[in-house]
Amino acid sequence: MQGRLYNRQMASQPIIKLLTGAGVGSRRQVTAIIKRGGVAVNGETVENFNTPVDPAADVITIDGKRIRVAPEPAVYLMLHKPAGVISSTSDTRGGRTVIDILPEPYRHVRLYPVGRLDKDSTGLVLLTNDGDLTYRLTHPRFEQEKEYLVRLDRALEGEDAARLEQGIDLHDGRTSPASVRSVKHSPLAYSVIIHEGRKRQVRRMFAVLGYSVLELKRKRLGTLKLGTLREGEVRELTPGDVRSLRQAGRPVRRPQL
User: Fold this and answer.
1) Which of 66, 92, 117 is the last residue of a domain?
2) What whole-number percentage of the chain has pLDDT above 90?
3) Quick one: 133 and 233 in the same domain?
4) N or C end of the chain: which has fewer CB within 10 A?
5) What CATH number did the domain enclosing 36 receive?
6) Above 90 in pLDDT, residue 39?
7) CATH number of the CATH domain containing 181
8) CA nearest to 197, candidates 100, 255, 256, 113
9) What CATH number does residue 247 fall under?
10) What's the average model confidence in pLDDT over 192-215?
C-alpha cells in the first residue's frame, strides 16, 4: 500500500492491533485473514500486518464488507476449566466450550482462550479480547511459564525426570527443558513447568517415557495463579494481574548462525 497510509499521526494503529482490538478475531485469526488477502484499506489489499491505519479516516473492509473498528472494552477473565469442556469458542460436534460455561453477561463478549487445555484436563484458562496480551502470553519468543499438576499411573523414576529436564523428542521436534518436582504427600503427583504450548505436550512427553497421565491441571500461566478458584468458577483479573502478565516474560534472542 502507498501514499498517506504511511504518513500517520498518533491516531494511527497497526492494522492487526486495530482488528483484534475491534473483536474481529484473535491475533492468529486476523493474521490468517490478512495472509489470504481478505483485508483492504481504502480499497487496497493489506499485505503488511503493521500497516498503519487511522480508524477515523480510513475505510476498512474484510472480504468486501465494511467493518466497525471501534475498540471493544478490554475484558480479562480467569476460568477454572472442568474436565469435559473444550478450550475453544465453538465446537462443530456440539460439545460444551469454555464460552458456554461463562456467566451470561460474558457469553456475548468476543473472548478467546489464551492457550488451550485438552478436553480431559482441568485448571486455569485465561479468556480475553486483548490481542496484544494474547500474543505476549502465547508466542514462543517470550517463553512464558506454564505450571501443571500431574498425576501419573506410577512413580516417576529419577532418570526419567532428568530426561524431561533435558528435553524430550516428540514427532514435532524436541521439547525445551522442563522443570519437574514431586509434590508432598503424593508419590504419583508432580509439578511440571514448561514454557511451550504444543498440543497435548505434557501428556505426550510422559507417554514417550512410558507413563500414563491420569490427571492434569494447569495451576499457573505466567504470573497468574489459579489459587482457590473452584472448578467452573470465573473471576475478572485485577489491573495488577494484567500489569504483571504484561511485564512477565522477555523476548528470547536467538544466536545468529
Assistant:
1) 66
2) 62
3) yes
4) C
5) 3.10.290.10
6) yes
7) 3.30.70.1560
8) 113
9) 3.30.70.580
10) 95
Average pLDDT, the chain: 88
Q: How many Cβ atoms are within 10 Å of 161's Cβ, its own excluded? A: 18
pLDDT of 245 reads 93
With beta carbons less than 8 A apart as the criterion, state whether 224 and 238 touch. no
- pLDDT range class, residue 257, cuts 50, 70, 90: very low
Q: Which helix (H) or strand (E) holds 79?
A: strand 76-81
Does residue 257 lie within any of the structural domains? no
The domain of 200 spans 145-221
Our count of domains for the chain comes to 3
Q: Which three cell numbers stand for residue 95?
A: 460439545
pTM listed for this prediction: 0.74
Of 66, 96, 111, the position where a domain reaches its end is 66
Least Cα distance to 161 among 206, 98, 94, 212 occurs for: 206
34: three-class secondary structure by DSSP: helix
| Known catalytic residue at 130 | no
Using pLDDT thresholds of 50, 70 and 90, give the confidence band for residue 225.
Answer: very high
Task: Select which of 54, 58, 91, 118 is catalytic.
Answer: 118
How many angstroms separate the first and last alpha carbons of the chain? 33
Both 120 and 159 in one domain: the answer is: no
Find the mean pLDDT for residues 139-165.
Answer: 93
3-state SS class at 246: helix
> Is the predicted pLDDT of residue 5 greater than 70, yes or no?
no
Burial of 219 by CB count in 10 Å (0-12 exposed, 13-18 middle, 19+ buried)? middle
Q: Identify whether the C-beta of residue 154 lies closer than 8 Å to the C-beta of residue 211.
A: yes
Same domain, 198 and 83: no
Residue 249 is predicted with a pLDDT of 63
User: Strand locations in 98-154, DSSP E?
Assistant: 112-114, 122-128, 146-152
